[in-house]
Amino acid sequence: MSKRLHIRFIINPTSGPKSRVNVAARIEQHLDHRKYKYEIVYTERAGHAPELAQEAAESGCEVVVAVGGDGTVNEVARGLLHSETALAILPKGSGNGLARHLKLPLGLEAAIRVLNQGHITTIDTGNINGHPFFTTAGIGFDAYISSVFAGNTKRGLQTYVELVMKEVRNYKHLPVKASINGNTMDTDCFVMAFANAAQYGNNAYIAPMADIQDGLLDVCLVRKIDLVKALHLSYCMLTKQLANADSAEYFKTDHISVQTEEAMMYHADGEFLGESKAFEVKMLPLSLKVLVP
Ligand SMILES: Nc1ncnc2c1ncn2[C@@H]1O[C@H](COP(=O)(O)OP(=O)(O)OP(=O)(O)O)[C@@H](O)[C@H]1O
């Protein structure tokens, strides 16, 4: 028998809807024990998963599995950046943006089968003001929504959509100066999204053309919004189409700087990060190994 690979599952017990599914029992039942020697650890607090992932990578573990939503995936992936250890995902959140982009099954047993049968590839990752992101980052409205959502006790898609519908009318665009591909532009900014993966999660495609292995960020700029544009954009996001140029503009770049007069909110993978007047957003090409179907 060839040497078994080490695999560590990092479970965020607080992520996803409450469920009676015993993840540990399912892993024991469905994981290929001829291929893997496994261990399960549980996060005890926010910020714990990067430590657990890094520790696994340093000890030579071949695969680390994030069991949770995009917040957990972000934390585990952060701990594995530039290492030889591959990230795998058992999706348990409400959005599951990276899992969906990588075409991972969302069901637990099917996702465990990917661990048994999948292969390892390497993807790009992004960085906004020193914070790694793997799916999307952004400034403006999407960050504002992440800040309100973070304080919400109710989670899930419906809460999210209700929040967006309520807040879209109140949130105002701000002037920004953006340097992209050697050009500087002064523009209004309702939202500027930086996409590594094509979608925010829940199959809401902010950058339908994004390729996670091309070394480039897809930037989506919405300068101003009104009801007609909001409806058009929502329709395009849910049908994986580019919006017309009047509603949104798209750029590809490996680096973008943005300066603002008033501080703007920003997020990475849906996690609200605070406010700033200056943003540096970079791509780190092929910097994370991932296990895919
Ligand atoms: N043991 C823990 N206790 C409290 N918070 C934790 C713990 N472990 C991880 N976290 C935090 O929980 C946050 C949310 O996790 P995650 O995004 O995976 O789940 P979710 O919010 O249910 O999913 P989604 O974002 O898809 O709705 C993470 O950003 C992480 O910092």
From TrEMBL:
The keyword Nucleotide-binding applies. It comes from Pontibacter oryzae. NCBIfam families: YegS/Rv2252/BmrU family lipid kinase. Keywords: ATP-binding, Kinase, Lipid biosynthesis, Lipid metabolism, Magnesium, Metal-binding, Nucleotide-binding, Phospholipid biosynthesis, Phospholipid metabolism, Transferase. It comes from the Bacteria. PROSITE patterns: DAGK. Its cofactor is Mg(2+). One of its GO terms (biological process) is phospholipid biosynthetic process. One of its GO terms (molecular function) is kinase activity. This is Diacylglycerol kinase family lipid kinase. InterPro entries: ATP-NAD_kinase_N, Diacylglycerol/lipid_kinase, Diacylglycerol_kinase_cat_dom, Lipid_Phosphate_FormReg, NAD/diacylglycerol_kinase_sf, YegS/DAGK_C. GO terms for cellular component: plasma membrane. Residues 2-132 form the DAGKc domain.
